[in-house]
Write a structure and sequence with these properties.
CATH superfamily of the largest domain: HUPs
CATH architecture of the largest domain: 3-Layer(aba) Sandwich
CATH class of the largest domain: Alpha Beta
Oligomer: single chain
Radius of gyration: 32 Å
Shape: elongated
Strand content: 5-15%
CATH topology of the largest domain: Rossmann fold
Largest sheet: 4 strands, antiparallel
Length: 477
RNA sequence: GGCGCCAUCGUCUAUCGGUUAGGACAUGUGAUUUUCAAUCACAGAAGAGGGGUUCGACUCCCCUUGGCGCUGCCA
């Protein structure tokens, strides 16, 4: 008995470089990557740049960068624009075999046909009589034609396929029409190029968004004409915006760049995206890449679309941020700090790490902490605690200044001791109202109504700045 | 209009015919507390409607409704 070797798992990510990497593409890429990794298969990255008008190298670069940033490494790389010979070869064969033909209808004629069909409540599609013409030389273009596949519009056949996620899916062949394959021998169109490539690249599973589901029967027909075998299909549920329509620009941040720029962590994004349409067996939601790979299966992918919920992303990201130690978080946060506050001393930023770890959802939020990097500006009246008044506020600040400046070895700042002194002050002079002491101190140090604990801030910014800021506060009218 | 896909808390989801329908995010309340966060505890919150099948349906089938996608000589 010979051992049956399992066919190699090969999947592909096939973006077209007509725009920047989009959240939806990234998710599709991620699922392909997870599937490949789970089965120790290969991931093929294929740039679908047959539309030269709209494709650009800049977009291609953006897409590649985004995927790399996410940590999705591919094993093979192709560009359709470099494979024109392959498409031409198959196109010629199809033409010779009379499975494909040149269609010379004008766009106006096509438009009219479609209009008529719509009025007759028929499926809009092109049924081309040119396929019955017997051209002398079928391969050559006799005018301004395009190449179409001959599809029998009278067939009663149902084109079926088994989708791993959706199960049986069927389309009536007669609603498909004589679909377009290429503008000319060296300008293939999407569906045709995909089928040629998926075959030649030995793709075993096509995992793509549900928006491609209607392309599948077309691709099946093309594959049959080409005489090649079909991959398995899996159509992923769409990522939706708040209004439940397909996620797009009008929903806000859909460019992957924006998430990189906002300081989301690649691991967090992988984690979050993997949970859009998929869930782990054990129900846990914070999972490492390896855990996701291990548990991943297409059978567990949901059928219905999933709304992109930034709040959950934020929560997941904050969970990842909390996992870093001071050193790690400091280097993560440094570029963002320097972007807003200029060059900073690493030793100083290291002191901020605990504050950031507790409070950041994404790294760009460091911009909220400007009082660590410069002197605060604020209106004098916010110094006054709600249960207090101007006079008491002044008194409190003076007392705090005294406590901090007199009996304090600042090099060994003892938070506990300071706190007990300030508490004692509140007890003795403000009837136990600690807010009367801490609130003015906070505002003096930060210029904000909301902030981390003022004693912690004092420790971080150091003696000189602390005393100075209190004095500034005291001079406010 | 045609074709197709989908349908459990506000959101992401669990349940593979028998559960008080579970978890997470979000929300609310409370604890902590000098504010805001963080943290902890608790709470409210769901099977679109109608028919079947079955001893028993969220789960299987059909219809309705609704949502979405596709409908290019774009991908």
């Amino acid at each position: 008995m010979t051992k049956v070797r399992k066919p190699e798992i090969r999947v592909r990510v096939a973006p077209s470089p007509t725009g920047n990497l989009h959240i939806g593409n990234a998710r599709t890429a991620l699922f392909n990557w997870l599937f490949a990794k789970h089965h120790t298969g290969k991931l093929i990255l294929r740039i679908e740049d047959t539309d030269l008008e709209r494709s650009s190298l800049e977009f291609e670069k953006n897409i590649l960068n985004g995927l790399e940033w996410l940590g999705l490494k591919w094993d093979e790389f192709y560009k359709q624009s470099e494979r024109l010979d392959r498409y031409e070869k198959h196109l010629k064969k199809l033409l010779e075999e009379k499975k494909a033909f040149w269609c010379y209808h004008s766009k106006e004629e096509l438009e009219a046909e479609k209009k008529e069909q719509t009025q007759k409540k028929e499926a809009p599609r092109h049924i081309c009589e040119h396929k019955y013409m017997n051209h002398e030389s079928g391969i050559m273009n006799q005018g301004a034609g395009i190449i179409r596949l001959k599809v029998d519009e009278n067939s009663h056949r149902t084109v079926r396929f088994e989708d791993i996620i959706r199960g049986h899916v069927e389309f009536e062949q007669r609603v498909i029409g004589d679909l377009s394959l290429a503008k000319d021998l060296r300008t293939p169109l999407y569906n045709f190029a995909v089928v040629v490539d998926d075959h030649e690249m030995k793709i075993s599973h096509v995992i793509r968004g549900e928006d491609h589901i209607a392309n599948t029967p077309k691709q099946i027909l093309i594959a049959e004409a080409l005489g090649v075998s079909l991959p398995q299909f899996a159509h992923l549920p769409l990522i939706l915006g708040e209004d439940r329509s397909k996620l797009s620009k009008r929903h806000g941040a859909v460019n992957f760049d924006e998430y990189i720029g906002a300081g989301y962590l690649p691991e967090a994004l992988v984690n979050f995206l993997s949970l859009l349409g998929w869930s782990s067996k054990d129900g846990r939601e914070i999972l490492t890449k390896n855990e996701i790979i291990e548990q991943f299966s297409l059978e567990k992918v949901h059928k219905s679309g999933a709304i992109f919920d930034v709040k959950k992303l934020n929560w997941i990201n904050s969970q990842y941020i909390k996992q870093f130690n001071d050193e790690g978080l400091t280097s993560l946060v440094m570029p963002f700090i320097e972007k807003y506050f200029g060059k900073q001393d690493k030793v100083f930023v290291l002191k901020l790490a605990p504050v950031f770890r507790e409070r950041l959802e994404y790294l760009d939020q460091v911009k909220e902490f400007k009082y660590f990097f410069g002197e605060p500006e604020y209106e004098a009246d916010i110094l006054v605690w709600k249960k207090s008044d101007k006079e008491k506020t002044h008194k409190a600040l003076e007392s705090v200044l005294e406590i901090l400046s007199s009996n304090l070895e600042w090099e060994i700042f003892d938070e506990k001791y300071i706190r007990s002194e300030l508490d004692k002050l509140a007890e003795e002079k403000f009837g136990g109202d600690r807010g009367a002491v801490y609130w003015p101190l906070r505002v003096a140090l930060t210029g904000e109504k909301f902030s981390p604990d003022p004693v912690e801030i004092a420790r971080i910014i150091g003696k000189e700045k602390t005393l100075n800021r209190i004095q500034v506060a005291l001079k406010k009218p």
